[in-house]
User: Fold these one by one.
Assistant:
Number 1:
Amino acid sequence: MPEIVFTVTRFGFLLLLWVFVFAVVRTIRNDAYAASRAGKVVAAPPSVGSPPGGRRAPRVARHLVVTGGELKGRSILLEGAPITMGRAPDSTLVITDDYASSRHARLVPREGEWYLEDLNSTNGTYLDRAKVSGPTPVPLGVPIRIGRTSFELRP
């Protein structure tokens, strides 16, 4: 093989290696930035017609809406009882996803808020992009993900 072809090939591989390194660094940076933003809560401005002082009545979750997966569009009315999710037939929300455990997670009402608990599932339960490790309060509109299925609490 001529010397010039060998040299061009070496530089081509070196360039390809650097492109790969920069892509990995960019992906890690984007994930770290998204994780840091997930913990921040931005207060909404007071709406027109709200009571003096900008206070509004707190929005309360009334529905658990499936936003992705096989059950997309399904809604469960929240009545104050715990909601269990998983592949088990006795779950409140039966998920037919290969990545869901039999008893995967549950939503429990406490003091006017809903808390998400992972029930030692194999693949984990995620609130937005963060893995749930203990009872975690669930804000309205924040996605809960179990395997390929996602949910949200809505008023």
Note: The radius of gyration is 23 Å.
Number 2:
Amino acid sequence: MASNNIVILGAGVTGLTTAYLLSKDASNSITVVAKHMPGDYDIEYCSPFAGANYQPFGKEGTPEAEWEKATWPALKELTEKYPEAGIHFQDTIVYNRKKDQQSAGGQWFSELVQKDPWYKDVVLGFREIPAGQLAEGIDNASTFKSVCINPAIYLPWLIGQSRKNGVVFKRGSFKHITDAAYVHHSGKKADLIVNCTGLSSKKLGGVRDDKLFPARGQVVVVRNDPGAMVTISGSDDGEDEIVYMMTRAAGGGTVIGGSYQKHNWESSPDPNLAVRIMKRAIALRPELVSKGQGIEGLDVIRHSVGLRPLREGGPRIEKDKVDGVAIVHNYGHGGFGYQASFGCAQTAVKLVNETLQQKDKAKL
């Protein structure tokens, strides 16, 4: 019988993965409350706009790398056993230009494009591409098999799995985090709140995390298939403009990007940036279009903008108490929310269990 009343704030990939893992314990009674839910497309809600894929960014030995490492087995298992989750394997090519390393995008991709990265023993079939096969200007490159996720399918799948385990989903928004303690579906005050509100934690009362800031990402979603998931360390168009592409599972289209514009809150697509994104993608992967075609050969589905929830010092996954209410935070994942989702959620679940055990001891 459920004995722990938990409210989870936020229904992005972080909140939903945390709910899914917590719901596997029958002693937890969980309500997920969120302003935005899967199916919504709003600039405040980052998860639907993500690629999304598994291309590790965390520096070796850091918590970020450990979270990514812990997430791979879960994504691999879902890809192999649960096709309805909307994830598929995809051949991946990563190119590195040393001259990009000091740019904003280059710094973000620096671990991904290393010659001998830690994740070579995690992903499938990692190998270096021989120098003799590299185009002029490319210093090193690698290829491996990874996964690409279709958020439009995967986020509802997480909801479905959680609902099977008794999780209740409700719409709601709050000015102060402690207000969420009173919306548990049982009618009782929650024993604990898990805060997965991403960039919204910057303005949420009781949290107001000034370390949070957006990294604006703009993409073009097309029907063309590049035949592989391809990334390069940077571009010559600007230090915060980057080049990548991936084809989402189950007809989700190909996402080509992009940008990594820190502290930029603009929600509307920039048409000039869109043109540069498309030109760069074709230059890097001519297979995107028929021979001899330029951007007119791209069959555009839509232009999109998402705000990655970056945080100085990295994600906040820790215990807290605000006005007597127990809280576990799990937010600030920047551009690696999906590929670190299970690792981060496992850490949050551990903190939830520790907090609830302490409360039980206090009652005794």
Note: The helical segments are 13-22, 63-81, 104-108, 151-164, 271-284, 341-363.
Number 3:
Amino acid sequence: MKKGDPLVEARGLGRSFGSKRILDGVSLDLRAGEVTGFVGANGAGKTTAIHVMLGLVRGEGHTLFLGRPLYAHGAPGTVVGAVLGGVAGHPRHRLRAHLRMVAAGSAVPDGRVDELLETVGLTGAARLRLGELSLGMAQRAGIAQALLGDPPVLVLDEPANGLDPHSVRWLREFLRGQAALGRAVLVSSHLLGEMQQLADRVVVLSRGRVVAQASMAEVMERAAARRAVTLEAPDLPLLARALGDGGGRLTPTGEQSAIVTGLDRVRVGTLALEAGVPLYWLHEERASLEDFYLGIAEEEFTIS
């Protein structure tokens, strides 16, 4: 498999609870060597979509893993590993024993357990009971369990929830490393700042529908087009004409302050200099995934 090859193809996923439509025609691909960020507000349908993809709940549409439905694979754990909230098991079971039990069910040798405990940094916690694990340790244990069968696809649902900054950083670097190994990684989250640092591609879900799919580079480009430049200058009318001729729009926010859209700060500064208008203040916010998401959300609610 080459980087960019689609390992998972989900098409037309749908799900209703009574008369309420939870998912409506959700389609997405997960590609080898990439982290796909599945973003949306709480209640947007991310978890339901993941459950339908994995066959944990019934729904409409279909999902192919390596070209076949998951049930058609003799050992699903060697195709996809899922972390849906830490590690699931009896709280009194010790971590190593629990992972060995899960491994035995998938014909995975015990040596793989110790290898993964070292990989996720839990060798020293191997004898702890599951109920004694911290939230961050439980997430690492869940990842180790998901990787027992060495699957090419890894799916994580809100893995950073409640984690401290150190654990979040570890998670980000670990998942980037898994993608570098050629795995297709799907991470759902509503933490947009973290997703901006992690994902190669973004799928935006709103009210059960995919409203945007793009690479992170495209996201940043679209977000940059929406960002505004703030400034202070003594002659706003003259500056407004100069910027208007250059394709921008100046909106006063005070006697000498304004917001400019349609131009970046370099172009604003250049046009102001050419017009002979001094600038007392010039500032431009960096583009962010949050800007992109909020812009998409505004469009979604406007057209609905």
Note: The radius of gyration is 24 Å.
